[in-house]
Amino acid sequence: MSEKQNEVKSTRSHRNIWISGLGGLAVGFVLCGVIVVTAMPSMMIVTAESTLGFDETVAALEKRIPEHGWVIPGEKPIDMNKSMAKHGVTFEPRVKLVKLCKAEYAKSVLTTDRHVSTMMPCTFSVWEDDDGKVYLSKMNMGLMAKMFGGNIAKVMGEKVAQDEEEMLQGLLR
What we know:
- The structure is a single chain.
- By secondary structure, this protein is α+β, with helices and mostly antiparallel strands.
- It has 2 domains: 1-43; 50-168, 2-Layer Sandwich (TATA-Binding Protein).
- 57% of the residues lie in helices and 15% in strands.
- It has 6 helices and 5 strands.
- The protein has helices spanning 3-44, 54-67, 80-85, 103-112, 141-148, 150-168, and strands at 45-49, 78-79, 95-100, 122-128, 134-139.
- Helix 4 packs antiparallel against helix 6 (150-168) and helix 5 (141-148) runs antiparallel to helix 6 (150-168).
- It starts with a helix and ends in a 5-residue tail after the last helix.
């Protein structure tokens, strides 16, 4: 084989390696995207069955939240069923939103990242399924905060997540 033929063969080989590498990289990005789109929604909201009935779960939250230095803005959970009924919409399974805020944490986040105010205050949702079982749903603050990084990760991912865990201890299955 001549030197020219070896050079052509070598060039083709290098080109094939680059094409294969770029193709593999593209497939990897697509697979990561599919995994993120598929898995993230179920990871962003955490839902667990309550160990108590509906009214007892709401009452337990109303008691536990202030015990951990938080407040319930408006001092009352939002009854979604009553709210919808005011607008002529009937919905049977009960749903209440328990909003909670800790001013110290809110100030820290708002000082550095005001755009995150759209996720404030934190919310626990207490709801019944069609069979009457009671569940509590909340944002996965640890995961959400990691996506933002910085002060949000420090406050919401560590302090808020820890406080929420303590408030809910023994309340969920």
